[in-house]
C-alpha cells in the first residue's frame, strides 16, 4: 500500500429513501443480482479506496441485514430525510480523526459511474487542500474528492439536497476538473422511469 492509498477514503452516501421511487430505499435497489449499495462499495474499492465509510438512513436496519458491507464503516444518519447535505455532513464527521486526508464521495444511485472514473478523480489527489471533480464534456459532476482542509467549510454549507454544491461554486477556481465522459455515464436513479438503467 502506498502512502497515498490510505490517505483517500471512500465516502458512499446511501441514505436516500427513494421518495420518487415509491419509497424504495436506493441502497436496496437490485443491480446485477445484488443491492446497489454493494455495487457502489465495490466500485470505490476497485478505484483503490482501502477505507470506505457508508452513510445509511432509510431502512438502515434492512440494508445492514440484506447487504454485505463487511469491512466498511457504517454511519447512521438519523436526519437522512432532510436531504443529502445531512448525509455528507455525517460522513465527513465520521472521517475526522481517522487519518484520512481526503474523501472520495460517491452517490449510491449512480451505477453508470464505474471504477475508472473514480480512479481518475482519486489520482488527482495532491494533499489535504485538494478539490477535485469529475467532469462530463467540461461540466462538473460526480464523483468529487474533498481534501480534509475543506471538510469544515463543506459541512457548514451542506444543507437540504444541495450537498457541497454551494461550496464548490464558491471555490470554483480551486476545483480541478477531470474529464470522465469517455468512461462513465452520470445518470441518477431518481424515478421509476430511471430503473431501466439497472441490470
TrEMBL record:
The MobA-like NTP transferase domain covers 10-173
Check the record and name the PANTHER family matching this protein: MOLYBDENUM COFACTOR CYTIDYLYLTRANSFERASE
What is the protein name for this chain? Nucleotidyltransferase family protein
Database matches in CDD domains = GT_2_like_f (cd04182)
Amino acid at each position: 500500500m502506498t502512502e497515498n492509498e490510505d490517505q483517500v477514503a471512500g465516502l458512499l452516501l446511501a441514505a436516500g429513501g427513494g421518495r420518487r421511487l415509491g419509497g424504495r430505499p436506493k441502497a436496496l435497489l437490485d443491480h446485477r443480482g445484488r443491492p446497489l449499495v454493494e455495487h457502489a462499495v465495490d466500485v470505490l474499492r476497485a478505484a483503490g479506496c482501502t477505507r470506505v465509510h457508508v452513510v445509511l438512513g432509510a431502512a438502515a436496519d434492512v440494508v445492514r441485514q440484506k447487504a454485505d458491507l463487511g469491512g466498511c464503516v457504517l454511519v447512521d444518519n438519523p436526519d437522512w430525510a432532510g436531504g443529502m447535505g445531512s448525509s455528507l455532513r455525517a460522513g465527513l464527521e465520521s472521517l475526522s480523526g481517522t487519518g484520512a486526508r481526503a474523501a472520495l464521495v460517491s452517490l449510491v444511485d449512480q451505477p453508470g459511474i464505474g471504477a475508472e472514473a473514480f480512479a481518475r478523480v482519486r489520482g488527482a489527489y495532491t494533499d489535504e487542500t485538494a478539490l477535485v471533480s469529475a467532469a462530463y464534456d467540461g461540466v462538473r459532476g460526480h464523483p468529487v474528492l474533498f481534501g480534509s482542509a475543506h471538510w469544515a467549510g463543506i459541512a457548514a454549507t451542506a444543507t437540504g439536497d444541495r450537498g457541497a454544491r454551494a461550496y464548490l461554486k464558491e471555490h470554483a477556481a480551486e476545483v480541478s476538473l477531470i474529464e470522465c465522459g469517455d468512461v462513465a455515464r452520470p445518470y441518477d436513479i431518481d424515478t421509476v422511469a430511471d430503473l431501466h438503467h439497472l441490470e
